[in-house]
Amino acid sequence: MPEQEPKIALIGNPNSGKTSIFNQLTGLQQKVGNFPGVTVDKKTGTLELPGGIRAELIDLPGAYSFYPTSKDEKLVVQSLVQPGNDNYPDAIVYIADVTKLEKHLLLFSQLKDLGIPVLLALNMADVAEQEGLQYDLDKLSQKLGAPTLLLSGRSGEGMTQLKTMLAALLAQPATGPVDSTQYRLSPEEAKLIPQLQDKFPGYTPYQLVLLAHHVKWLPFLSPLQKEQIETAISNSGFQDLQLQVYETMQRYDQFTPIVQQARDKDGDQSASFTDRLDDLLTNRFFGPVVFFGLMLLIFHALFTWAELPMNIIEGAIGSLSTFLQSSLPEHWLTNLLTEGVLAGLSGIVVFVPQIAILFFLISLLEEVGYMARAAFMFDRIMQFFGLNGRSIVALISGGACAIPAIMSTRTISNWKERLITILVTPFISCSARIPVYTVLIGFVVPPTKIGFISLQALAFMGLYLLGIAAALLSALVFKLILRTNETSFLMLELPAYRLPVMRNVWLTVWEKVKTFTVEAGRIILIITIVLWVLSSFGPPGSIPRAEAAAQRSAQEQKLNAEETQDLVDAKVMEASFAGRLGKFIEPVIKPLGFDWKIGIALITSFAAREVFVATMATIYSIGHQDDEYSIREKMANQRDPVTKELIYTPATSLSLLLFYVFAMQCMSTIAVVRRETKSWKWPLIQFGFMTGLAYLSSWLAYMWLS
User: Fold this and answer.
1) Distance separating alpha carbons of residues 367 and 659, to the nearest angstrom
2) Which residues, in sequence order, are bridge partners of residue 148?
3) Which of 47, 132, 253, 605 fits 57 for a cystine, CB–CB 3.0-4.6 Å?
């Protein structure tokens, strides 16, 4: 049996640059999943160390201490307080921001008491050099009791030395549990530990203290173990909150003088620059103006920067389709490939430039430190609507995808605020809606400009603002309905403004775009094949009868060849399985201005919103041999075969836009809400009120413009 790879945990405070170090060490060779039993992201990667050592690097969530206020921090405690845990490391790399060393050493000092070999990596070496900030690393290493080095997640400085020191750390013989803690135990803790040592063999004294602090929520403790810990707590006079404060203050008293003695110069240039910038960007009045201005520029970029690559992709797919139709024999497999698979996939691939631009710009804002300011700036407003300052992160992330946004709410410790954030986040227009908005806005708003901003870009932002308004107003309603006795607070460190680490930005863009295209593409491929079959075939004899009836009608109306073919295509579509399904639901959606073809797209887009455009491409490609393979043009030119009126009038297009702004059309989102809330009650409530609001708003818009 091969020897198991050693596990190395990467640990640090939020905003310590831990992600940059992880990306430097693993690059694209990393996996993203979930920690067992929870919905917290688990990032792992393979690390090659000197001496042929191959190790697994685990990126644990950011945490401030072993006294958690979020699910992320609880996971860190859970992983490190139990020696038998699957994520229990053989060594720890602790990442600390060297420019804020005193603030970042609390968790490090706690880790030292676990008995796990710890390496202290001081990140932001390049920033420290610019500020003239220097530390005596030998003195720090000696006084703190851990090998210490300087490195930079931005430039990669120190990565080779880090690997060498890690190999040496792993080569040291295991010492077993430490006998004492770095700080002086209180009398209550000293009395508690002997009562638990026999019941929890292999645990360090500090781990036993942590068991007492967190006995109520640690999931691995059995009822008997909890009873034993509760008895020890009662016998020793252990006071949870009081001893947390005692420990924290004592640890700061110990490591603060060490840091001050080892520091040659205070680095305050970055802090003063950050403070001056924050005076503007977090200003009560000017800050929101800057925020919405940045959002407007992002939406403008989605239209202008993506136009050229979208046209290139669209033209390439069109040429490929034409080539295949002319080269392959006339067969149903040829039609499936060109009219089904290619038509459907084009509805995803053509929008990849917009998705990439969106993630690129949002990642830049995160890297420079602006997104943390957004959370801080909007905390008071969020509280008014029953949310939390951290909710703004989920709501903004919802602009990319509701699924990770909902999962990110685990950082909100208050149950009511977290639940409200989960329920209203899908109102935020996600990237999957971009294809729908892009196609339909052109049918409602002309492509004119006001200055350098196009009206279509303003309309695009208007749809996002409408979703935000719906989210906030719905949150206010839930605030009044839901009751809880929990109190709420925002604990958030505002990092110094720094130039973005482009490696992190590109890795984020790559990961998100890959996820979007692969996962959506898998759904699209299945749905488009099913759609093509449903659209091309019908009950026995129905298709020939429809063709014959259309030919007779065309002769009676004296239609030309092109008009005859359009009528035949329309009648065949109606007679197909897809047409019958659309006809079945048409009475329900007709008041909204939707025909049965749109009805088919509404049904399929419950799998994923972006499927709407792919469905339209599939439906409108059936029976057509157009050289121009443009979904938007085909939709724009669609007319009712009887009345000859355009299908996508401004009234119908606006109605459809509003439906997609408000509707809960994503089965994956429903599934993740079920998982996060541990109940079908909340996703069903969410689906009901969002669908009801979508139907009502669409009906009002259609009645107003008709």
Assistant:
1) 34
2) 120
3) 47
For residues 683 and 456, give the distance between their C-alpha atoms in angstroms, rounded to a whole number: 33
CA dist 135 to 97, 148, 153, 263, 659, Å?
Answer: 13, 11, 18, 5, 59
Among 454, 458, 395, 406, CA closest to 429:
395
Cβ contacts of residue 265 below 8 Å, gap of 6+? 132, 133, 134
3-state helix, strand, coil in the chain (%, to 5): 65, 5, 30
pLDDT at 427: 92
- Torsion, Cα of 230, 236, 240, 245 (10° steps): -160
Contact 37, 125 (CB under 8 A): no
Mean predicted confidence (pLDDT) in 229-245: 89
Q: Is the pLDDT of residue 209 over 80?
A: yes
| pTM, two decimal places | 0.64
* Rg (alpha carbons) of the chain, rounded to whole number: 30
Residue 616 has pLDDT above 80, yes or no: no
Strands 30-34, 53-59: pairing is unpaired
Please tell me which residue, 183 or 68, carries the higher pLDDT value.
68
Q: 């026995």: which residue's tokens? A: 540
User: Letter for the amino acid at 174?
Assistant: A
How confident is the prediction for the chain on average, in pLDDT? Answer: 79
The pLDDT value recorded for residue 274 is 72
pLDDT at 343: 66
**C-alpha–C-alpha distance, residues 227 and 102, integer Å:** 38
Q: What is the mean pLDDT of residues 197-221?
A: 90
Q: What is the average pLDDT across 96-119?
A: 89
Write the burial class of residue 555 (CB in 10 Å: 0-12 exposed, 13-18 middle, 19+ buried). Answer: exposed
